[in-house]
Amino acid sequence: MSQPVVVIDAKDHLLGRLASTIAKQVLNGQKIVVVRAEALNISGEFFRNKLKYHDFLRKATAFNKTRGPFHFRAPSRILYKAIRGMVSHKTARGKAALERLKIFEGIPPPYDKKKRVVVPQALRVLRLKPGRKYTTLGKLSTSVGWKYEDVVAKLEDKRKVRSAEYYAKKRAFTKKVSSASAAASESDVAKQLASFGY
What we know:
Layout: E1 5-9, H1 15-27, E2 31-35, E3 41-43, H2 46-57, H3 75-84, H4 92-99, E4 101-103, E5 116-117, H5 124-127, E6 134-136, H6 137-143, H7 149-185, H8 188-195
Parallel strand pairs: 1-2, 1-5, 2-4
Antiparallel strand pairs: 3-6
Helix pairs in contact: 1-3
């Protein structure tokens, strides 16, 4: 990756594999924005992953619970914590790397109008055997206390309507341009120019 900012659509990616790829890239100096974090997948059935998260929720400082560890419920923060664990975040280099990273639920402006990419080596369909169980991160987050799944879903529905309208307009415009260029190439002027060797 060697673009100013790369926007990754996290839908149907495996959490750990995507996190490792992003960690490597931000350490190399690449700015990355991750959208649709709630649509990430984790291998394994929902109930087992929920038990693992509840095991994590029990971990706390013995004498003062406010000192951490902090149990983030939002999908964006769960992904952030996975990436942070793969970066030496206490050094200046690690802090600078994490500042190059932004993670969002849904696709907020202005990233709804930017080109989004996927990470093939982290896609569930290419990495998980067909028929194996997997968990959606948004569902897991909601089960442990994340309150904004419905809000994000509502905003995503609105965005998809706008996106469909834009795509329909773009297709119509492309069709007009191609038909006009085809008509122009078949015109008498083009034939005359061809006769003169142009």
